[in-house]
Amino acid sequence: MGIHDLIEGKRQWRAHMARVKALPPDYQIVYKEMQRYLFKVGPVDLTDGPLLSGIVDFFEEGAAAGRPVLKVTGRDVAAFCDELIKDSPTYADLFQQSLKK
Amino acid sequence: MSFWETVTGSDLTREWQAFAARTEALPADYRAACEEITNNLMLYANFSGRNLLPIVDAALGLLEEAAAEGQSVHEVLGDDIPGFCAALAGGEGARTHRDRWREQLNRNVARKLARLGG
Amino acid sequence: MEDLTEMLKGTLEGCVLEIIAGEETYGYAITRRLNDLGFTDVIDGTVYTILLRLERNGLVQVAKRRSEVGPPRKFYTLNEAGRRELATFWSKWEYVSSRIDRLKEAGR
Q1: Which domain holds residue C12?
Q2: How does DSSP assign B61-83, residue by residue?
Q3: Domain Transcription regulator PadR N-terminal, which positions (chain C) (predicted)?
């Protein structure tokens, strides 16, 4: 399934983004920037894996505890993202492998 | 010769046509960027095109998402489309481009949070 | 103590396993526990990525449950594989720390 299907109004995706919109503004900002970065880096299971919804779970808990978002992710949000996808191959990884064959 | 023509005739035609249709649905400035991206990605093909499919899919997905959010194409891609493609394909120069994405992410977060708090 | 990040790499996962072994608990509580122990630099995000890894490697059992405040929480307990991993962690730790102690003593 392509990202396209999700963007074009998959119910799940809309429900997911609705949860994002219910987060406090600082959490929303960080979530959206993270998502943008992750879409670019492109871990292969991004849209049908649990990564994105897991981040929202995690953020909902942090927000409920009243913690500022950067206390939760750390100042280096990119490092947090990279740590999250450390074990999942990206499209670039798969592609480079296919060239080596 | 365009990217699409190159792959026409292969058994992958149908998939590429689907990509072409998705490209058509994008705003004009995005369509131009798409063309440049696919032409650039060709540099990385060896080439039945099959191994490039997921990458083109990812690139299109990114553009579709950005267009849906009303971002400008420049905001998404920056000035360096060859570098962007290198990062997508994981080729030479991918490291530095991903570093730039990292910096961009942290900078955007800092800027937008500051504006929020201000 | 601050600036322990580099030194804690590789041991933090063991610490999280130990905390979960003690009692069923959830992410934010684990971070607080580590902070209270004196690892003040450890943040929730780091613990979150460790928990994801533990889950993916099949070392913990996860139950999503309602909490008194806020959204449902994921609670973690160790399974058999997790307990084995924890035992391995402690024996590695004993090995490394005893050697380092020896090195330090010899230098005196």
Answers
A1: 5-107
A2: HHHHHHHHTT--HHHHH-S-HHH
A3: 16-87
Query: Domain A3-100 - what CATH class?
Result: mainly alpha
Total structural domains in chain B? 1
Domain ranges in chain A are 3-100
Give the CATH number of the domain where residue B101 resides. 1.10.1900.10
End-to-end CA distance of chain B, in Å?
52
SS3 at position A61: helix
| Test mutation, C40, C52, C76, chain A, max A CBs within 10 A | C52
Chain A CB contacts of B88 under 8 Å are: 40, 42, 91-92
d(CA B64, CA B56): 12
Burial-class residue C29 by CB neighbours within 10 Å (0-12, 13-18, 19+).
middle
pLDDT in tens, A35-60: 988 888 877 677 667 888 899 999 99
